[in-house]
Design goal:
193 residues, alpha+beta, 10-stranded mixed sheet, 5 helices, 10 strands, elongated
Length: 193
């Protein structure tokens, strides 16, 4: 079934931040400011209150940084991490099954993996990465007229240094065990036979 209904375009960027040299900077939307962002994204006074910064590898496009609130994207993203996104100009530019920041009128700011199903079903599917809590974080249908902005996640900043997961430890142990098995087999001349 193909839906032919037209949908409103994503609003163009209303406010950007620049440094003293006129270079565009990244506005940072922390959790405490995120409740007002869906209404204040076009308000220069609101946006001027947000901190801004630069990253040397992000020179092309307009970027924003949003703080993760909750664990719906764990293990990909942790609570309080900062996700940096590049502005998405058209719904067609959504990168299938990648993390995006989607700003909606009523639901606020969501950081999710997106599936663009606008042409087929008339909505975007927003899904969480939380493997242990699928029932707690079901997929959400987001209709184009709900969308204020979409940002494609290009990086994230975490002040925690994660420990290797259990799987990583298991792989390391298996590699060590295999090395020992190979050493024993070689010493007994069983490997070449």
């Amino acid at each position: 079934m193909q839906l032919q209904a037209s949908h409103p375009p994503i609003s163009p960027i209303q406010v950007i931040s620049v440094d003293n040299d006129g270079n565009e900077t990244i506005l940072y939307v922390p959790v405490r400011a995120s409740a007002g962002y869906p209404k204040g994204y076009a308000d220069r006074e609101y946006m001027e209150k947000l901190a801004s910064f630069s990253l040397p590898y992000l020179n092309n496009g307009t970027h924003r940084a949003f703080e993760v609130d909750g664990d719906s994207m764990f293990p990909t993203l942790e609570n309080k991490e900062i996700v940096v996104g590049r502005f998405v100009e058209k719904f067609e530019d959504i990168v299938e099954d990648h993390v995006h920041i989607i700003v909606t009128r009523d639901r606020g700011i969501l950081i999710k993996r997106l599936l663009n199903r606008i042409q087929k079903y008339g909505f975007i599917v927003a899904k969480s990465d939380a493997l242990d809590n699928r029932n707690l974080y079901p997929n959400q249908e987001i209709y184009p007229d709900e969308v204020v902005e979409i940002w494609f996640a290009v990086g994230h900043i975490n002040n925690k240094f994660r420990h290797p997961t259990d799987m990583y430890k298991r792989v390391n142990n298996l590699e060590a065990d295999l090395t020992e098995i190979m050493r024993v087999l070689k010493s007994k001349n069983l490997l070449d036979k």
